[in-house]
Queue: 2 jobs
Job 1
Amino acid sequence: MNNLATRILSSSSLPTPSLVASLSSFLSHRLIITSHRQQTFVRHVSTGVPELTKDRYKDVKRGNYTKLDKDHIDFFKRLLGDHRVITDSEECSGFNVDWIKSVRGYSQCVLKPKSTIEVSKILSFCNANKLAVCPQGGNTGLVGGSVPVFDEVIITTSLMNTISSLDDISGIAVLEAGCILENVENYVNEKGFMMPLDLGAKGSCHIGGNVSTNAGGLRLLRYGNLHGSVLGLEVVKANGEILDLLSTLKKDNTGYHLKHLFIGSEGTLGFITKIAIQCPPKPKALNVAYLGVNSFEDILKTFKMAKSNLGEILSSFELIDEKSLDVVSTYYGMKSPIGIYPFYILIETQGSNLAHDEEKMNLFLEKVMNEGIVLNGTVTNEDSKMKSIWALRERITEGLLCDGYVFKYDLSYPVKEFYAIVEDLRERLKDPEVFRICGYGHVGDGNIHLNICLKEFSQEILKKIEPYVYEFTSARKGSVSAEHGVGFRKPKYIHYSKSEAAISLMKDLKKVLDPNNILNPYKVLPQ
Ligand code: FAD
Ligand code: 2HG
Ligand code: ZN
């Protein structure tokens, strides 16, 4: 009996009638959900292009930068060769639009360096000539930080994708910034390790982009954020100087921990070229449970019990509300394996002993179901079924694009107030144009993703949402950007989460590291 679901059903000490009913319901549905092929991540779902950023956001003015001319292009071509300097408008267009199609720049030049030295020469030239640049990884960022606002030169890491080393004892990997997260995950898996972060964009995002945004993802609860797992970085400063902070040591208290300045700085303080990262051992045992509950109160009760009963093996605790699940059901035909509930919880455990983990999971499920907190559920350790359940959660972001235009908010709160913003906005925003307000996210990290969908972008609706959402968040001492960063969308709202003194120090640091303000201007800091 390899399947945990089967094991529970056949256990005599268990289960309550509702558990039997619910697990049977999973068994009868499982063919349906597993029959949906795992589709690979699609980069651009909708075909429309957004208005130019300069026209939609008229309050942002182009800085006093040099306009790109033929001499600049000739320099880049001498450095990189003709094929790694893209100037064709059609070819540049994909690099100018963000993943959710909310912003669009009009850069006429995309550079594809292959080495740190090339990045250094590019930046040194741009700095001397006052040409603004926009670093770009996989362009999956959700706050408009990865594309130019005006005509900034785009520097992509797409050709810097070598896995330099992996220490088979410590699990420390050294990677070039353009390595795609999923490729690295597959590589380290083969050697018995895993990456300490995982996100729905793994098939496209680059590790350099992940570090630059301090990406959180689906297992932060267990493995912590990148400030903990990144051991060292190689960074090119705005003036082209190469900063070797590429330590692979766990302990190194020699002076200030400079790497932390660049983790999460979204390309505004330096260009990350290499990363040393600690990979944990690949878990030997995995379990995924998918549960249906009636209220957010019951989510909190389940979370508390999951923490105390699953302890060290709990690796994810994710919430999906009914309207979020509806996205993947409507657009991808992916049904809930347990029927329809107001809320779903996805729990994952990762451990080293299957029997031990299953016992813990069984006891936990028995408790939450006996107490009537969880109404229905399914649990599995079969690879294809776990993937199908994860797909219900991971593909929401992509599916939301099929709704039309989506206003995205990535907020964190004390966990008790996690879902309040969704309920509040549903009351406040009773506008026929808005047909979906949904919430899902990382309960374990207090990080909710609020998404508001309408057919197309509307300034009027935007005014009803912002700054209201940020005021609401600030009043609860929450964060206006929990994991996606500030990018282009939020600089003027950063003060809702940071004091004036903190913003002023950030501006001072920016001046020291990038006195000409050429690195990703108009992003992160208010103008
Ligand atoms: P990009 O989007 O290309 O760039 C992001 C920012 O980093 C930009 O400001 C850019 O200028 C800068 N940058 C990129 N590379 C460098 C570099 N080498 N040096 C300096 N600056 C650089 N995010 C989460 O945190 N958690 C999630 O769970 C999550 N899930 C997602 C799911 C989907 C389906 C999608 C589309 C996005 C998701 N994201 C998530 C957001 C996004 O994937 C992350 O922010 C990711 O880390 C961005 O990586 P990227 O390579 O695409 O970077
Ligand atoms: C996730 O957790 C990502 O799936 C994306 O951070 C969130 O689409 C979003 O709003
Ligand atoms: Zn997230």
Note: Confidence is low (pLDDT under 50) at residues 1-46.
Job 2
Amino acid sequence: MEKLGLRTTGDLLRHYPRRYSDPGTLTDLSGLAVGEHVTVMAEVRQATVRTMRNRSGAMLQGVVTDGARTLHLTFFGKGPRALTHHEQKLRPGRVGLFTGVVGAYQGTLQLTHPDYKIIGVDVDDEAEALAEAGRPIPIYPASASLASWRIQASVRTVLDPLAEADVPDPVPAGLRSERGLVTLHQALKDVHEPFTDADWRRGRDRLRYEEAFVLQAALARRRAEAARQHATARPPRADGLLADFDARLPFTLTAGQRAVGEELAVELARPRPMQRLLQGEVGSGKTVVALRAMLQVVDAGGQAALLAPTEVLAAQHVRTLRALLGPLAEAGFLGGADDGTRVALLTGSQGAAARRESLLDAASGRAGIVVGTHALLSETVQFADLGLVVVDEQHRFGVEQRDTLRAKASTTPHLLVMTATPIPRTVAMTVFGDLETSTLTEVPAGRSGVTTVVVPAENAAWMTRTWQRVREEVEGGHRAYVVCPRIDPDEPQDDGADLLAVDVVGAADESGRGSAARNAPEARRPLRAVLEVAAELRALPALAGVEIGVLHGRMAPDDKERVMADLAAGRVQVLVSTTVIEVGVDVPEATAMVVLDADRFGLSQLHQLRGRVGRGTAPGLCLLVSGAGGAGRPAAGASPAAVRLQTLAETTDGFALASVDLELRREGDVLGAAQSGGISSLRLLRVTRDADVIAQARTDATAVVEADPALDGIPALRAAIDQQLAGEREEFLDRT
Ligand code: ADP
Ligand code: MG
């Protein structure tokens, strides 16, 4: 049980059956695969004991069937007598559950020494046998050493003696009757010991609602707590840095940027902490919106911290800020404006002198804006008056990290979180449910957009054309990215690999069997690596004379910084890199992107990647190179991976893609990637499917928390939330 993660009776009761077998329906045996641990319902056709010719001992050979196919059962014993008890139970015509690891012997599938349970036989009396024969049979997530019905028996041992009063219910009685839900005690009986299919459905629906409700109650409490806190109001000033910044902006803001900007300006001016999520289409210009909010806070005498997920991105933000602010960002320097401020950079790898100066700038308040990576979270970082925390490209930061940074202010600072990619509404409600949401849907006018084409890797002519196209872009004065899933051909693991891991599981279906299993030969195909590809491209006649640079997570920060600067300046024309450029990198001259082994990336990730090109006025081109079966061909002959890429080629709407992506992945991966809290407690809830339940639970939970903020009247709900937070904290500790 420990191996299944079952340590307490509570764990056991929350170990829900994965499915239910109807005693009248046999399992289709055609789906069995060698090596799999299975539990099947089948009918015994025969069972014969034989003594063995070559060895001492006896063997029982049984055959079970689903009516069409057969599966063999093999038992060995010291002598025939040792096997008679099996022979007596395995009578032809009887139906039972059989469990074990599927093996193959001389071309037939078999289970060796399977654990089994004959329906209606292993019970005490006939009445019970009859009753049992008509009930749905719960099939639990089991293991080779612990059969489903042994789990079932253990659950009964725990559940049967319990009375209603022994099972405190986190869902208040009033809500239960309003929503037509049974009590927790009843729901547990329904899912573990159903008499009918309607029973387990009723129980499951109630437990699913409970998961959504507890999660939303936790989020509602976070919102309520934040709303009770005091924050320093940072009202806008007509003649400050923000006004100067706006005057220097080389473009006009989009309608969306203006609208969201006003929303933020109002909230920052209130003495309550803003708690807002800014999500938007890739390239919609979230950064500018955040910068303007930061400047409003600086104008009001406070400081702003901008937390970026990578050093490349942190450095880019500092460059952007300094460029846009000009002399306004050079306070205290010769030529700096009198009323200016400073933009400080804090990263984990900067030199001691630079770090000391940045720390001093932050602590003294001389720097109005401090940009950094995780290093900003370190204890030595102090602010004079931190008024706003901006978390860029949130998916790499957890809730706890947000809190760490906010704790650096004497009064709760305002908070703005930005997501890297558009996210579906249900995910926003679940993962970022403690935040209000603003959305930027339009991208600035004048962009020609990105054309996406799928290129079959095995087609030499297309590949030649691909590199020619890269050359043409470079000759037109533009830059190109070539993205690979790995760094080094000799090493299997690298910073690209975690993305792969996500994607391999990501394409997994409900049964939990992922694309890795189904496309085994494809999974073993060696993946293209940055260092190898860079060497190949340098030797390629089509790219002769083109400056090719490399960028990956294992390079020294200075080198990364230099390559990015070279790329922006045109000293590097083609950048071969891992997905380190995925998040937020902004080089407007970049027009072409070639993604190698594109099928190994998630849809949202590819959308994010291609968002790196076509940022200027010249049109972007994204070439997705893939060896996935049927890539570049019409859907009929294409593998699922190829179809996925085609979907991307045909869709430019990031919100639509995010929904497709979500359907293709298992929840855990999506939410895990978003580093949400309490996800380990989501067993039945699916954010793709249960949008209605989530929305309803959110309304209900908000009302409950409003009426009873401390949840004094519902101790079971408070306990459930605490338990969830404890799990969240554990997860956080694991990650760090
Ligand atoms: P994202 O929302 O993906 O983070 P960015 O903030 O990086 O997008 O902005 C993408 C690019 O668009 C940047 O080069 C930025 O300077 C530019 N940009 C932002 N707003 C506008 C606008 N209103 N008009 C023209 N260009 C803009
Ligand atoms: Mg960005």
Note: The two ends are 28 Å apart (CA to CA).
